[in-house]
Amino acid sequence: MRVSNALNAHRLRTPFLYILGALCLVYFPHSANGANPPEAPAVIVIRNATILTVSHGTIEHGSILITDGKIAEVGASINAPKDAQVIDAAGQFVMPGIIDCHSHIAAESINEGSVSVSSMVNMSEILNPDDIDIYRDLAGGVTAANILHGSANSIGGQTLVIKLRWGQPAAKLPFEGAVPGIKFALGENPKRSNFSIPGQPRRYPSTRMGVEETIRGAFSEARDYKKTWEDYNKRFGAGEKNLIPPRRDLRLEPLVEVLEGKRYVHSHCYREDEILMLLHVAKEFGFKVRTFQHVLEGYKVADELAAAGVGASTFSDWWAYKVEAYDAIPYNAALMTRRGVVVSINSDDAEEATHLNQEAAKSMKFGGLSHDEALKMVTLNPAMQLGIDKRVGTIDVGKDADLAIYNHDPLSAYAVVQKTLIDGRVYFDRQRDIAERSEREKEKKALIDKFKKAAEKKPEDKKPDATVPIGQKPSEKKSEEKKPEEKKPEEKPKPPSASGIDSAAVLPGGAL
Amino acid sequence: MKTTSIFLRIALIFTAASALAGQAFAQSQPSTSYALTHAKIFTLAGSTIEDGTLIIRDGKIAAVGAGLDVPMGAQVIDAKGLQVYPGLFDSITQMGLREIGAVSATVDSTETGSYNPDVVAATAVSPSSEHIPVTRAAGITEVLAVPGSGGFDSSGSGGVIGGQASAIHLTGWTIDEMLIKKSAAMVLNWPEIETQTFDFATFSRKEKPYSEAKQEYDKQVNEITDWIERARHYAQVMEKSSPAKYDRDLKLEALAPVVRGELPLLVFADRSREIRNAVEFCDKQRLRMILAGGSEAYKVKDLLRSKGVPVILRPMLTLPLDEDDPYDRLLSQPAELAAAGVKFAFASFDNSFARRLGQNAANAVAYGLPYDEALKAVTLYPARILGLDDQIGTLEQGKLANLMVTNGDPLELTTDVKYLFIRGQLTSMDNRHLRLYEKYSKRPKAQ
Fold first, then answer.
1. What backbone phi and psi angles, to 5 degrees, belong to B344?
2. Which residues of chain A make contact with B318, given a CB cutoff of 8 A?
3. Residue of B213, B411, B433 with shortest CB distance to A500
4. Residue range A431-447, pLDDT digits in tens
């Protein structure tokens, strides 16, 4: 993993240099953007800021005291110890860190699309803490994200919530105590309407009818499986001897957790009819849908969503990239909010996540939400949807010090993130990032020069390493709901890098 | 209370829209004249007028200034507290060429084959596209519809010469009424040295050595050279003999204005190596070049300035090309290009995201571009780059009245466009999204 990422990081200009780069990495480990996790000072005080608490209004010239990663005090005047590290935020705006309820960053892969029920796979097993998109989104004020499996199948993989602790190992990314989830998907994606691979037969289901049947079938099995275990446990508990326990089923176990309310269902959907379909199925089997994702026609069934107590996590203004997105309107978030639905604005895309504050602001223009209501779309509401609102989502005493500091009102296109804090640590600092750029350039140049020199000496000694994976182009979005210019299905193999030359090194046809 | 005010507002919009509907599309009666009074007018040609009047007559700006007399018969719009700007110009779009991305039957953006200089976007622009009114509502009054521009279509590598881009007004009963300039630029997708390609037939990645990829690149560049040289020869023949005396070749004929330097080449390239090669090629062949994309234009900014090559930048709301690029590499590029004296415009490169044009420009300001430059990069500069600034781009007497009246900064996310004029016609702000919003706002509470 380290090799492939470092290779991406260097993007050397010739095949020669590329190979040599790979070989030299062991001597020059380097990760972009200061990957060492920041120190955690015991006490931080943010002063002179406009504080957008989200829960209790705006505090002008306010201060926030952070001790041990938690918010200890918030107000116009606070008692800060003398040895506190001070962040002077004069003229700046502090808001709760942005929570992205639909993300695919920090993941090695997105879709186990070969079967229609892939509940046995788990995103937590393929977290990639070196994904540069973690840092890019952090630089957009994002502090937590719901890392979802893709939408290729009716019942997708298990999901988790992470904090964007850039520089920490994979084990430190998961949001402690957050309820795990599972991805469901309805409509065109699970029925593979827009995707087909030449030479491969169509996979069931191919219609919305089949999608419903697939989910009902899976929950019928899960209900039986649950009962089998309950019977066994009952008899075991009663002291019955020589019992053979039922065989574990890794596919059904997560669905049993759904039935028991221990795992949240996050369901991809577009059309009003499929939204109601899943609500009916959930009622039949006695489970709750936690969030509908995308839910671009949610405004048509907002009352039903509100009545069922389901959260809606939607896009700001994406539309028309496929038929089921043709009735998408930018008023969706506001309309659902007005009917009592808890609504968040998500990204589904590493780039979109870098300006979710701006995307939230659009709900003021399209539907007239208030400044606070718009802010909630990317803070408190996604926190509620993910069941982490006791910990994050507002600036209140006792909550995690996960904060984004902007130079202007964050609901403006002119606002730029200055600092992002998670657990009271400054994980992103724009001034530091800018200051370190010349050093990074120097280091890169020195490495390239070194490789060049080595290449001139004895290139014939170096052999391509066939096991080095080809790095995917970092600018490729891992979004599964592609923006229109990226219409290809999420599960297709990544198209090649545009620059391309870096891969020549690992080809058997290379001169070396 | 809030709900009431919102519904009131919507109701007002609709009342206004229906009241104006008569004039909205009444292009058969172009004699209507308007007077916008007491407006703050950002002419983008000289200083801003604080309490100004703008007179529209016969589709054009008849007068603009402070304290002007309102002509007899003009419909007066009191714009006190409002601001007037030129309409936004989205200078690379898929407008009208693609309705629903995933449905190929609704997509007409890229023709089969590598060299299609004689296909013209205007031929396939659907005047009834739902994207047009949605885009208009964002204050965008005209766009360049671009065919065969590689990168965002599924037809594999796309073409090399993609066809002719058409500049169109975003209103009109027919495409003929919409046209500003049918042939405004010739699309050229500059080849790349690709060692990895994606084979859609087998759905797998194909790889080849650099030397082979370079050979293919050189071959493609030679092909382009060959086309240009044949077109130049053809143009000479056209000049010197009558049409009866030579075999007509529609493709070469379409390229003739390019080699004569009358029609600019809109060259799509992002990496500095390809940009440099394309600039050198156009320089040598004496072709007018507009760079499109330009993600690494900053690396060749001196060359672009010295050769006078303008750039239509792809949206800055895009991730950097490389993992070790600064996270704000694309966002800060416009400021860097402006400081270096490179001319550029912003564009959406899309249809459904066209309404993010202003947002893109504002983001460039957030990362250092002077505000006036950002505003001009979505109004005057695209007009100038495409040679249309004699007609649009500023609010000056004699120019087409393509303009918007807003309640604030047109680049900011929360600003509303109150009135939109295209060719002097007060144009409807109604659109698919507003209609669905109104319809479902009225849904009775479900039981």
1. -150, 160
2. 351, 475
3. B213
4. 999 999 999 999 999 99
Check CB contact under 8 Å for B324 and A11: yes
Which pLDDT score is estimated for A464? Answer: 45
Nearest to A178 by CA among A375, A427, A384, A342: A384
> For chain B, first and last CA: distance in Å?
23
Indicate the range of A7-21, B7-21, B54-68 predicted with least confidence: A7-21
Domain B2-86+429-441 has CATH 2.30.40.10: yes
Enumerate domains of chain A plus CATH numbers: 98-392 (3.20.20.140)
Residue A474: asked if its preceding bond is cis (omega within 30°), the reply is no
Which candidate, B429, B447, B445, B441, places its Cα nearest to that of B4?
B441
The interface predicted TM-score of the complex, written ipTM, equals 0.91
**B88-392 architecture in CATH?**
Alpha-Beta Barrel (3.20)
Best of A475, A481, A482, A494 to substitute, by most chain B Cβ atoms within 10 angstroms, is A475
Q: Which residues of chain A have pLDDT under 70?
A: 1-35, 458-512
Domain chopping of chain B, boundaries: 2-86+429-441, 88-392
Q: Do A504 and B213 touch (CB under 8 A)?
A: yes
Mean pLDDT score of chain B: 91
User: In one letter, which amino acid is A413?
Assistant: A
CA distance B100 to chain A (A): 5
Q: What's the rounded Cα separation, in Å, for the pair B378 and A460?
A: 53
The Cβ of residue A405 has, within 10 Å, a number of other Cβ atoms equal to 23
CB within 8 Å: B413 and A488: no
Backbone angles phi, psi at A242, to 5 degrees: 55, 35
Q: For residue B432, give how far its alpha carbon lies from the nearest alpha carbon of chain A (Å).
A: 8
Q: How far is A88 from chain B (nearest CA, A)?
A: 21
Alpha helices in B241-345 (DSSP H): 250-259, 272-284, 301-306, 329-340
Cα separation, B76 vs B181, in Å, equals: 31
Q: Do A338 and B3 touch (CB under 8 A)?
A: yes
Beta bridge partners of A145: A100, A162
* pLDDT tens sequence across B183-212: 999 999 999 998 887 776 666 788 889 999
Give the residue carrying structure tokens 């005396």: B245
CB contact under 8 A, A323 and B201: no
pLDDT at res. B244: 81
Axis-axis angle for helices B329-340, B357-366 (nearest 10) = 80
